[in-house]
Write a structure and sequence with these properties.
Blueprint: H1 7-20, H2 38-41, E1 63-64, E2 67-68, H3 73-76, E3 80-83, E4 88-91, H4 92-97, H5 124-132, H6 135-151, H7 158-190, H8 208-217, H9 221-225, H10 234-259, E5 262-270, E6 276-286, E7 289-299, H11 305-318, E8 326-332, H12 339-353, H13 356-368, H14 384-396, H15 398-411, H16 416-427, H17 429-452, H18 459-478
Parallel strand pairs: 5-8
Antiparallel strand pairs: 1-2, 3-4, 5-6, 6-7
Helix pairs in contact: 1-6, 7-8, 7-10, 12-14, 13-15, 14-17, 15-16, 17-18
Length: about 500
């Protein structure tokens, strides 16, 4: 049977024969699992990838419709396999190296050289040529050739090549991240902001982090290769900052544990997003020097004294510190320690001072009671002095405040419901007790607070003042006297500023 061999077929035959030549005597270095179906295992065909194509040469082949197979086709198509049992042709490359599923849009007949075998000898040349030019077959032949090259030691396997490439990529990534960490450490050590207002590539100032990276990339090969879009996002910057923060925090806590005793300083403020941020600073002695270190900031949804105390106990405990070794506490800002009582104090001021009508009623009530006309004090979140004055004014003007709340409630005007609620709260015994006790306590600590802020105050004198104030507060707590004798019911107010 004559045939015309195309250049494509010649090239394919050359590749196939080159990789087939050593196959018979070559040990199987790769996986030789038989990928054929169970029915194919019973055929007289190759069983694994390392075997050569089965190409038996018979004296006479079975005849079908006056036509039969000719072994001359082996020379043209080196990938052919002939099954004596079924008198059919198969493709060695496709059986062992092609995909086992149909491609998109592919007809089921395209797999005939893999599954059933081809035995129609009338159009055999056309079918073999079409099969050899199919995409599936070409990919299988390339994979077959690569398989033989790997087994012969001429090429590296795909798995090894992937591992080598991955190892190189990991090294490059680590070098790149190490350079970014150096930038992060520098900015953190210098206390510089990381991000700018506009971080697009066209911006003249993309922020310190990106600008530093651009400068270093000119001399740093690791940064130059991955200059844009690799670990530069705000999220990745935050991750790197967090890594340094955890490391620094660990070192600080180790120093605190070595020092044993420590003090905590707590402050809170609102950020630009109007969220309350609580900062904790720890103070301790290390190598004979006093150290103050920030442990972090936390978003607080509630800033009452109870919520703050609960949070501090939990956070200090999670750091592995013993709260019993805390010898000092400082809360810069009364708002975080106000509790429900100080919240009512603030509400009373806002209710009366923010309304001209209620403010005039307040002045008239004091005049009617023949009292000196006073203004309620506005509180300040950062100084205890203003909280003392606010409590003092409410105690002195208590009757006038009640009169304003009663008048507002009876008038059923704007704010009458709030006035009724405030009246119920301030007439309750718990608040009256808190008001009297806090005014007395703040009066004592107010003097100490003022003296401790003097620049020329000597440490021995300050220690004496603190000790005497503490002793006085302890005496108030422990003496078994009546509330009036203890000063809780006797106003005895000092001069009002």
């Amino acid at each position: 049977m004559s045939s015309v061999v195309t250049p494509q077929q010649q090239q394919e035959e050359t590749i196939s024969r080159e990789v087939m030549a050593p196959a018979a005597n070559m040990p199987a270095k790769l996986d030789n699992v038989n990928v054929s179906s169970s029915s194919e295992r019973e055929r007289d065909l190759s069983k694994c990838k390392s075997e050569p194509p089965v190409q038996p040469v018979l004296k006479e082949y079975p005849k079908k419709n006056s036509r039969r197979f000719t072994p001359e086709l082996y020379k043209t198509y080196a990938w052919l396999e002939y099954s004596v049992q079924t008198d059919a042709l198969f493709c060695f490359a496709c059986r062992h190296f092609a995909s086992t599923s149909l491609a998109a849009g592919e007809k089921s007949g395209a797999r005939i050289f893999i599954d059933k075998g081809y035995s129609c000898w009338k159009n055999i040349q056309t079918r073999l040529r079409d099969h050899s030019e199919s995409k599936r077959h070409r990919s299988a032949v390339v994979a077959w050739a690569y398989f033989k090259s790997v087994n012969a030691g001429q090429k590296t396997s795909i798995a090894n090549a992937i591992n080598v490439n991955r190892s190189a990529e990991v090294r490059e990534n680590r070098a790149h991240v190490m350079s970014l960490l150096k930038v992060t450490a520098l900015l953190g050590r210098q206390g510089l902001a990381f991000r700018g207002h506009t971080e697009v590539s066209e911006s003249d100032n993309k922020g310190n982090f990106l600008e530093f990276v651009d400068v270093l990339a000119d001399t740093d090969d690791a940064l130059q290769k991955r200059r844009y879009g690799h670990y530069l996002s705000p999220h990745n910057q935050n991750d790197m900052i967090r890594v340094f923060g955890e490391k620094v925090k660990k070192i600080i806590l180790e120093d605190v544990k070595d020092a044993r005793f420590f003090a905590i300083l707590v402050d809170e403020t609102k950020d630009l997003s109007k969220k309350e941020q609580l900062a904790i600073i720890i103070r301790y002695v290390h190598d004979g020097c006093i150290k103050e270190r920030a442990l972090g900031t936390w978003h607080m949804k509630e800033l009452s004294a109870e919520a703050l105390a609960t949070f501090l106990f939990k956070e200090i405990g999670s750091m592995g510190l013993d709260i019993q070794l805390c010898v000092g506490q400082c809360y810069d800002g009364a708002s975080v320690m106000r509790g429900n009582f100080f919240h009512i104090v603030q509400t009373l001021y806002s209710f009366i001072a923010n309304s001209n009508t209620r403010h005039q009623l307040f002045i008239a009530a004091q005049t009617h009671l023949e009292q000196r006309v006073l203004q309620l004090e506005r509180t300040c979140n950062t100084r205890w002095l203003y909280w003392y004055r606010a409590v003092q004014k409410i105690k002195l003007c208590f009757e006038a405040i009640l009169a304003v709340l009663e008048a507002t409630t009876e008038a059923r005007a704007d704010g009458s419901i709030e006035a009724a609620g405030l009246k119920l709260k301030i007439e309750a015994f718990p608040l009256l007790l808190h008001l009297t006790a806090m005014e007395r306590i703040l009066r004592i600590t107010h003097g100490l607070s003022e003296l401790l802020q003097e620049r020329g105050l000597a440490i021995p004198k300050a220690a004496t003042l603190i000790k005497s104030t503490k002793s006085l507060l302890e005496k108030m707590r422990s003496e078994e006297r009546s509330p009036r004798d203890a000063g809780l019911c006797a106003p005895d107010p000092p001069t009002v500023f």
